[in-house]
Give the backbone structure.
Amino acid sequence: MTAVIPTRGARCIRRTRGSRGSRCIRGSRGSRAALLAVGLLSLTGCATLGLEHPPTAQYPLPTVEKSKAAPSKTSPRGDGSTLTDAQAQAALITETDLGAPWTATRGAATWRDALLKATTGAGECQRLLDALYADELLGGPARVAVGLDDADTDAQLRYQIGARRPSDVDAALAWLKTMPSQCARFTATTELGLVEDVQVVEAPLPEVGDVRQGLRIGLATTTDDGQNVLLTLDVAAVRVGEDAFALTNGGLGDVPNGATQAAVQVGALRLADVRRQGRVQV
């Protein structure tokens, strides 16, 4: 087990069991290993990547029934949303919703450029990688978004409210649903030339909203000095009436699934509540 401690100009990895002291690795643009050193894991190679369906939250929150309200006939936005900008902002989750150790983000995680910015010749799988890197799981830029960091594990959760019509959201969700079959396992190459073994499986989500889709994605690679690295991403997208949200919860190693489950449940409840309040005020 390792604990990653941020320092100015360096990342320190402190071994907490059976190790002697700690070591700091300073990043350099020409070093592949330095970019990935914060996530060094004791794997036996890419072939050992074993991905299983993540468990649901141990103490699930109340679920949200499918929206029964008719779409507004006077939507002020071209994407069909009836939410004002302030309401969309209010529908975002916060670090308070997830509790400790989650905090407001300190910036994009280093593994985004190091591991998610990759290319592949495996058909639709390139589209998946591009959507993950650009945070466009719903098929377009977010309307509002927030980033949260797990201070204990260096995982990062990125949550967004979409800005697309319900039919477009449903099409994006249907496409995501095909990924476990179309891109169950493929190889990709990062900008630094690292070859990644990528696996995609379907992941269960709480029964909330009208339509939903979850994935768990693992990207495993080996650095030039023989150290194995695994990036794990939980992906979730949900439509609630005319509005939708999506999130990724990712980090180096085996990312716990509890935050993903909680974020989906809280997010659906909050979006439904904001929509309900908006109808009452009309």
Notes: The helical segments are 32-36, 85-90, 95-98, 110-116, 125-134, 166-182, 258-281. The longest helix spans residues 258-281. The two ends are 54 Å apart (CA to CA). Confidence is low (pLDDT under 50) at residues 1-74.
